[in-house]
């Protein structure tokens, strides 16, 4: 009986399977739907969720792929790598300088040349043409900046769109400097010193030289010519009362002088100096953002004083306990004063040797396209016409396009100019008169 049953079971024909080309699981689902005209709600819900999940995944994948293909909007990572190889731990990290480069009508070419002569990717630049310059000049400067591949890669050159009036003999240049410093602080808080250059100034060292020497100095140092001896300035520049039209008029007019004069203040001591200074970021923040109200009180006083830019910063520094020991009584600017005109005289090729021997970082003033500028480019800066000064960040072949290939901006290549600047600063700090010349009452 067992053998018969087993034989019958073995010889039974196999059951016929449905003839279709679908996988069995999918086939069962399709056949189920065909047989059941009223599918269960649970199955519809699962189907809807599966389709929604697939659509969401597709949208996310497309959005991620499109965002990853968007070009990088920040500065070039080759200029500012996140990781650096440190070859010499004794060399400090280079600082950064915030430059205001300003000019007037006809100075657009001079501003661009000065920008190229002082350019370094670590620095920050704000270019300004006052309202006397046509708007076309301002647009030309902006287009030149945008079209330069180096400036576009570093994203550290900006053009002030709404210009400020700046009368050299009034108080509006002080307003311009404070305005520019506040803009540069908003653009970046990474810079260490603020330098304001007019279109008639020019560097006497490369930026690699300057940054190399400044990297060894405390970042709160201020290079400011100052003196409490007023002399003839008391009657001509401190007691007169003026109204600077650059502070309230949209068009330039003559300076207004009041008939009466005022007495010198007794609440603080006035100091005079030069309109050019190298000021620390901490001091500029003190003037603009500090809780101490003295910088604003002094700003109100100098608003009606002739040539207030040359007096404001020395007076704030020397009346502040926080900063009066950070002042070096030398602004590192080379210039020849003309006593007959009470102003700097124009420099020329006969002054070249004196500039080099001075060890100064900058010189003023130069006439437009004076041949001595070409001499400085060739013998000091090694700058070709229309190009920036080559530095350690330039990796291209020597020539006009050496900086079109760039590397780490923090790599400096100082020249012999750094030695001259070093000797000048060492002499200032080591001759025994450094402290005695700080904010001294005469």
TrEMBL record:
Residues annotated as transmembrane: 43-64
Subcellular location: Membrane
Cellular-component GO terms for this entry: membrane
Bilayer disposition of the protein: Single-pass type II membrane protein
Protein keywords: Glycoprotein, Glycosyltransferase, Membrane, Transferase, Transmembrane, Transmembrane helix
Main localization, broad class: membrane
Region spans: Disordered: 1-20
A GO MF term: glucuronosyltransferase activity
Domain of life: Eukaryota
PANTHER family named in the record: CORE-2_I-BRANCHING BETA-1,6-N-ACETYLGLUCOSAMINYLTRANSFERASE FAMILY PROTEIN (PTHR45719:SF10), GLYCOSYLTRANSFERASE (PTHR45719)
Name the UniProt record assigns to this protein: Uncharacterized protein
Species the sequence originates in: Clitoria ternatea (Butterfly pea)
């Amino acid at each position: 009986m067992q053998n018969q049953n087993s034989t019958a079971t073995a010889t039974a024909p196999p059951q016929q399977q449905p003839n279709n080309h679908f996988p069995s699981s999918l086939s069962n689902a399709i056949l189920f739907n065909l047989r059941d005209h009223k599918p269960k709600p649970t199955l519809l819900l699962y189907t809807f969720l599966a389709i929604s999940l697939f659509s969401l995944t597709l949208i996310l994948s497309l959005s991620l792929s499109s965002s990853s293909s968007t070009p990088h909007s920040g500065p070039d990572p080759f200029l500012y790598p996140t990781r650096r190889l440190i070859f010499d731990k004794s060399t400090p990290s280079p600082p950064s300088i915030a430059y205001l480069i300003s000019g007037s009508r006809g100075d657009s070419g001079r501003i661009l040349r000065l920008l190229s002569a002082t350019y370094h990717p670590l620095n920050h630049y704000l270019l300004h043409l006052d309202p006397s310059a046509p708007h076309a000049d301002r647009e030309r400067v902006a287009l030149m900046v945008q079209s330069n591949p180096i400036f576009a890669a570093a994203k550290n050159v900006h053009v002030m769109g709404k210009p400020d009036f700046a009368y050299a003999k009034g108080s509006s240049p002080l307003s311009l400097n404070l305005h520019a410093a506040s803009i540069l602080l908003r653009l970046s808080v990474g810079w260490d010193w603020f330098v304001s250059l007019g279109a008639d100034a020019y560097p006497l060292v490369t930026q690699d030289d300057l940054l190399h020497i400044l990297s060894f100095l405390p970042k709160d140092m201020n290079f400011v010519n100052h003196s409490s001896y007023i002399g003839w300035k008391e009657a001509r520049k401190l007691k007169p009362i003026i109204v600077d039209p650059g502070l309230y008029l949209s068009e330039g007019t003559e300076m207004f002088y009041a008939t009466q004069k005022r007495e010198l203040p007794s609440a603080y001591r006035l100091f005079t100096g030069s309109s050019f200074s190298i000021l620390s970021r901490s001091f500029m923040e003190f003037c603009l953002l500090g809780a101490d109200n003295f910088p604003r009180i002094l700003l109100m006083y100098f608003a009606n004083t002739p040539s207030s830019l040359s007096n404001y910063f020395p007076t704030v520094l020397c009346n502040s306990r926080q900063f009066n020991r950070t002042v070096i009584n030398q602004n590192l600017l080379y210039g020849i004063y003309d006593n007959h005109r009470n102003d700097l005289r124009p420099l020329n090729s006969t002054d070249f040797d004196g500039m080099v021997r001075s060890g100064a970082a900058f010189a003023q003033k130069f006439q437009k396209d004076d041949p001595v500028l070409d001499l400085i480019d060739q013998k000091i800066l090694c700058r070709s016409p229309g190009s920036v000064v080559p530095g350690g960040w330039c990796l291209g072949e020597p020539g006009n396009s050496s900086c079109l290939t760039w590397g780490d901006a923090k790599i400096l290549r100082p020249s012999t100019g750094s030695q001259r600047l070093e000797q000048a600063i060492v002499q200032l700090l080591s001759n025994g008169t450094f402290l005695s010349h700080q904010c001294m009452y005469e």
